[in-house]
Protein: Integral membrane protein
Organism: Phytohabitans kaempferiae
Amino acid sequence: MSLETQTRAGVQSVRIQPLRAWWFAAAAVAMGAATVTAIAQATGRFHWWAGFVLVPGAFIAAAGAPLLTRGGGRAVTGYLISWVGAIVFAVGAMLMFGVMAEGWPVMIILPTLAVAGTYIWRPEHPLARAFHRTIATLALCGAALGVMFLLMSGDAVDFGDTDWWGGFMMAAAVAVALNGLALLRHQIEYRLQAVTLAVFPALILFLLGLRFIRGDWPSHF
């Protein structure tokens, strides 16, 4: 096979792959929209006007799929577009079922998961990678906080008068400190300064969270 034939075959393959991804994504989101609508109608919680949010969200999510298959910066763009569509779709689904008042923590969970998922595109430089990893792990803490709000909204969890959110402050502090300490493995310039900037604020945040969760934070000064 000549070089020209191989080049043409490669170009054709690149063109077909995003097209297949588009059709697959379009079919998936169309089925998702149809499923949500059918369940809402069957349960008597159907709000037809929510379709004006649900359907565009499905199309936005599908629009990012072809870019995800191309790699590089286009894949990042496709990832963000797909997550925006997923968030809009989730809003439409909650409006369709009329559960926005109970399901609002989903609007914390989905964006934070989207940020956490960007970890797969890691920078090359250790300092930039540590910063990005810190943001991703903090986003995971935010997603966990959203899940906790969702459980509390559904009366599955009740902490009473305890300042439970102090535990999430402590978890975030541990994430920042560990990512900062990981820089000690690399021989880079300003390593100790970067570790200090991560560990000391994290220590203060951890101690604050500990005081909150123990309930010994002074109510007056």
